[in-house]
Input
Amino acid sequence: MALITYIVEDSATIRENLISTLEEIAPVKVVGFAETENEASRWLMENNGDWQLAIVDLFLKEGSGLGVLKGCRNRNAYQKVVVLTNYATNDIRRRCAELGSDAVFDKSNELEQLLDYCADVTALNTAASNGLH
Output
């Protein structure tokens, strides 16, 4: 069972590499992407029950990933929002957690942890849907 995933990343190169890596290695199906805060927030709200994971960069063409996090505060319990950034400082990690992020990963050296996170969330969702909580 693949995680229905939405990507918020404004760099086409990073986004394309991320999507191909996630879909090849992790149990992920990417259903769309956004390059701006407004575009991402609108899609996530309009498709509220249709996604399980949102991967959000902080620095976007317009707006910020922090705004996307704020907009996801009222999501369902099974929906996870993680930040993937080049600026994963302790302050950024704390701020993202305050805004409801489930995890923060550094683009430069924590991709393996992101892949593991995707596998863990998929396993939890599969167990929950099979009644094995």
In short: Strands lie at 3-8, 28-34, 53-56, 80-85, 103-106. The chain has one domain: 3-129. The mean pLDDT is 94.
